[in-house]
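User: tokens in, sequence out, please.
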């Protein structure tokens, strides 16, 4: 009985040790690619437009490292003329330097109805930079 319990303990210890990841396997690729919503730091551009006229705003944002780049804008209609806009970035690569990188990306706006449009670019989860455009 003692021999069986000693053998069982040794077997369990070997199985536990074999299942540990010691981080020495360089053949296993790491998943260093991801996407994230990031905060807007500034918005510049026209505040008036004609009906059906496309205008381009310049949106500034800061990336947390040098592996990031602009991906797309995520837009959510809050009401008929109000939108909440989030900058989405993609990060690719494992050897990134953790330095902030300031970037800009164009945002195209075109209205098919006259009115006042409030574009709320997300700074963080609770604050926005609002860019108002009057379309006539």
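Assistant: Sequence out:
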């Amino acid at each position: 009985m003692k021999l069986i319990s000693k053998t069982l303990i040794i077997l369990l210890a070997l199985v536990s040790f074999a299942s540990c990841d010691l981080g020495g396997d360089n053949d296993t690729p790491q998943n260093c690619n991801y996407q994230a919503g990031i905060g807007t730091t500034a918005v510049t551009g026209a505040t008036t437009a004609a009906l059906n006229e496309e205008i381009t705003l310049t949106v500034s944002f800061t990336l947390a490292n040098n592996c990031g780049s602009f991906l797309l804008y995520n837009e959510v209609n809050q009401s008929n003329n109000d939108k909440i806009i989030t900058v989405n970035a993609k990060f690719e690569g494992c050897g990134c330097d953790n330095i902030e990188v300031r970037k800009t990306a164009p945002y195209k706006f075109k209205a098919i109805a006259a009115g006042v449009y409030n574009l709320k670019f997300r700074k963080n989860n609770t604050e926005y930079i609002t860019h108002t455009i009057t379309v006539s």
